[in-house]
Amino acid sequence: MRIRTLVGVALLSTGLLACTEQAAAPAHAAVSADAKTLQAHLEFLASDALEGRDTGSRGHEIAAQYIVSEFKALGLQPAGDDGTYYQRIKFRRSSLKEGSANFIVDTGAEQVELEFGKEFLMGPSAYAEKSEVTAPVVFVGYGLVSEEFGLNDYANVDVDGKIVVMLSGRPADLPSEEGAHLNSSKTRFAAERGAVGVISLHTPAREEVRPFKVSAMYQRAPSVTWLSPDGEPNLAYKNIVGSAYLDYQAAEPLFANAAISLDEIFAQLEKEEQPKPFELAVAVTMSRASEHEEISSPNVAGILPGSDPDLKDEFVLYTAHSDHIGMTQDLSQDDHINNGAMDNASGVSVLLETARMFVEAEQAPKRSILFLSVTAEERGLLGADYFAHFPTVPLQQIVANVNLDMPVLLYDFADVIAFGSTHSTLGESVAEAAGQYGIELSEDPMPEQAIFTRSDHYPFVKKGVPAVFLMTGFTAKGEGENGGEIWGQFFAEHYHRPSDETSLPINYQAGVVFTNINYEIGKTIANDPERPRWLPDSFFADLD
Ligand SMILES: [Zn+2]
Three-class SS of residue 18? Predict the structure, then answer.
């Protein structure tokens, strides 16, 4: 396994860590976050009146207008479209037409039609209302390509104009964050090589983590894609006309003419061997009909100009998603509103308080600060991804992203986890900032989650912007209080449920500390003569 945390490990094991004595604020800090203000923001954003702030809903529009009004009151400069704070985004919501999905294997000897929902799953197309593709099929292992990890599942096969079959998941020996990034790039790898269809194959290993039946239950949700200013859906995968997810128990016809059986391939996986790509000598037809609907939802952007004549054209970017998942469809419950108090009314409140602190600080930061609330995080980081594709300031001038998502403000945390801190020089800024408040920097307690690839900073990381994203750690200051347990309980009982609401025992004092640290991080970056850099050995240093 590749060791990727050298600097992070060094940070954690040397004197750079904060001492554990409790300090409310560093002596020299002139500004501090305010608990009452955080509470006021959070209670408005998480109120029932906003109905869960779903992308494109009236409730989310009201949340966005609230953020605009706050930015205006603070005197931030509008940084959206046409001199406004709004960056208005059009989205396409696509749904599969009932009964339209087909999957047929032609083995030469017979035609085998698979059963939708039982043997294969298929989502809608964002590109066409009617799509159909028939092509020969090539098996490509996990479908991964990485020079760094010595992977090329497309070696010596031509997939141009063909449908690829790839195993879901990835080799167990890939580190989690890098593996998650590669995993999310599989369709792109196929598209770049001219494939016209992608079949992902469920595996016995996957069945143990998430049974095929469970995936089938979530099948009906519509998918959302951003549209470019001229109305085109994100074109990354346009030549992929068909795609499906296939249960391995239904995959036999695909391997009817193959020299190696699927069982032998699964046996190779068990022995951690890499299955080789080969032509399956069958043809598959996939077809579907999709319905498209256009919705609109805004990002909100404001700038505090920097004070240094040379550095003010560079930006430190704070992000927090203002959307949540809206109303629940589960009518068995009395409360149907997913208020998203921790997800992410809390993060937006921290963003607004951070903006106020920068505005009211005695000294303006040298670099400019860009505050951005993004929409459609819950639909796949779409608002952030749109901004990263169509930024309202030059992307190369964004020196760093500090992301705020779901700070669980339910206990006096004694440590923070800083996703991304081991990949760039931002790790030093975080350790320094947290240390000022007597907060330790801990190692990621759940690396298997690859959280670094799962929030709004990730689209910026993919464009080369170093990023850091703080989470409250698993150690609590209070006697008899177990941070990890409280965090885990929140995740198990309230995450993405109507009970993520203001009736939770929210600890606004913890919010103050969390905000102060995030403020200090941004301030340090804004005033540092050097801009942050990726560490040379980081996988994320040079992605595209
Ligand atoms: Zn969420």
Answer: coil
Cα–Cα nearest to 102, from 240, 282, 288, 241: 288
Per cent of the chain over pLDDT 90 is: 78
* Amino acid at site 192: E
State in Å: Cα 377 to ligand 1 middle: 7
Region 270-277: mean pLDDT is: 89
- Exposure of 515 in the CB half-sphere (CA atoms within 13 A): 29
Give 496 Cα–ligand 1 centroid separation in angstroms: 6
Residues with CB under 5 A from ligand 1 (ion): 343
Residues 6+ apart with CB under 8 A from 537: 4, 6
Task: Please tell me whether the overall predicted TM-score, pTM, comes out greater than 0.85 for this model.
Answer: yes
- Give the count of alpha carbons within 13 A of 43, CB side only: 11
Residue pLDDT, tens place only, 346-377: 999 999 999 999 999 999 999 999 999 999 99
Helix axes 35-45, 508-527, angle to 10 degrees: 100
Q: In this structure, which amino acid lies at residue 273?
A: E
255: left (phi over 0), alpha (psi -120 to 50) or beta: alpha
Q: Which of 217, 495, 170 is nearest to 342 (CA)?
A: 495
pLDDT surpasses 80 at 55: yes
Distance 308 CA to ligand 1 centre (A): 37
Of the candidates 534, 453, 397, 467, the one whose C-alpha atom is nearest the C-alpha of residue 542 is 534
Buried-state track 446-461, b at ≥16 Cβ within 10 A, e below 16? eeeebbbbbbbbbbbb
Two structure tokens written together for 26:
């560093």
H helix or E strand, kind and range, residue 243:
strand 242-246
User: What is the CA(472)–ligand 1 centre distance, in A?
Assistant: 16
Contacts of residue 431, Cβ cutoff 8 Å, sequence gap at least 6: 11, 16, 17, 18, 421, 441
Ligand 1: distance of its center to the CA of 319 in Å? 15
Distance (Å) from CA 379 to ligand 1 centroid: 9
| Centre of ligand 1 from the C-alpha of residue 264, in Å | 39
User: What are phi and psi for residue 50, nearest 5 degrees?
Assistant: -90, 0
Distance in Å from the first CA to the final CA of the chain: 23
C-alpha angle 517-60-316 in degrees, rounded to nearest 5: 30
Count of CA atoms in the C-beta half-sphere (13 A) of 141: 23
Measure 495 CA to ligand 1 centroid, in angstroms.
7
Per-residue pLDDT tens for 451-485?
888 899 999 999 999 999 999 999 999 888 999 99
